[in-house]
Amino acid sequence: MVVPHLLATYLNVLHAIGATHIVGDTDGWTLFTNSSNWVQGKEFHVGDVLEFNYEKGLHNVMQVNSTAYEGCIKDTYMGLFTGGNDSLFLSEVGRIWFICGVSDHCENGQKLTINVVP
After folding, report:
1. pTM of the entire structure?
2. Under a CB-based contact definition with an 8 Å cutoff, are residues 28 and 53 in contact?
3. In angstroms, rounded to a whole number, what is the distance separating the alpha carbons of residues 97 and 95?
4. Start-end of H helices in 1-118
């Protein structure tokens, strides 16, 4: 028999752990990933993790605002990740923008925006 308050606690823990979303799936974070298509049909929740996989040194991940996203502005980022296997915990509701700051990668489409829901 499951006690109702224990079940509610268990369900809250499961929700807090969240899902892991591998950006670009098996292709990873590359110039050839169509991020708009990749996002289609996915829901991103607080507690989920975004995992960016790419060849270290060839790409990076910059978390930026909407203006920097639209214009591929690389000098006003809020976060810079260069490890090649970067996991980002989604901790807040709202839209988040990412670009690759290497060379002209962003201008050639290597960017991603997601909307995080509760």
Report:
1. 0.85
2. yes
3. 7
4. 4-17, 35-39, 66-71
